[in-house]
Specification:
The structure is a single chain. The chain is built from 7 helices and 5 strands. It has about 140 residues and is of the alpha/beta class. It has one domain (about 5-130): 3-Layer(aba) Sandwich (Rossmann fold). Strands 3-2-1-4-5 form a 5-stranded parallel β-sheet. Helix 3 runs antiparallel to helix 4 (about 55-70) and helix 5 (about 80-90) packs across helix 6.
Length: about 140
């Protein structure tokens, strides 16, 4: 997928917005911007959070960030991963939130590393590599 290696979750991008020179920025510089992307689901969550906050500054930062980092649409094949992951997690008695499920299915379909601060949920997804760029 166009050289992408990492799919950034909402909490990672939110951290970058709040702490532009923090740990996440150092990781971005290490791996290179060309290896990064995010999901349209993440973009929705970021825009919702900015609008709900009522902060023009946060809205502008979200807008700028989403112009820099590629936002990937969901592809039809994501549905198979979604069904597989959801069934597995429900059988284990450890479901995850619906948005996180869609993000995980997209990352797994594209064979990307899921970068999130919400490691506990995403690590339960089989065959999904997970990294946390905040607590390293």
């Amino acid at each position: 997928m166009a050289g992408f290696r990492y799919l950034l979750d909402t909490n990672i991008l939110s951290h970058l917005i709040r702490h532009p020179q923090g740990q996440v920025r150092r990781h971005l510089e290490r791996v290179g911007e060309d290896s990064l992307c995010t999901s349209v689901i993440v973009a929705c969550e970021l825009r919702y959070g900015a609008l709900r906050s009522g902060s023009k500054r946060i809205g502008e930062r979200v807008q700028t960030l989403l112009q820099i980092i590629p936002v990937l649409a969901l592809e039809p094949e994501v549905d198979e991963h979604y069904a597989d992951i959801r069934t597995h997690l429900e059988h284990q008695g450890t479901p995850i939130g619906h948005n996180d499920l869609l993000i995980a299915a997209q990352a797994r379909h594209l064979e990307l590393v899921m970068v999130t601060h919400n490691v506990r949920e995403f690590q339960r997804v089989p065959r999904l590599p997970v990294e946390n760029w905040i607590d390293e």
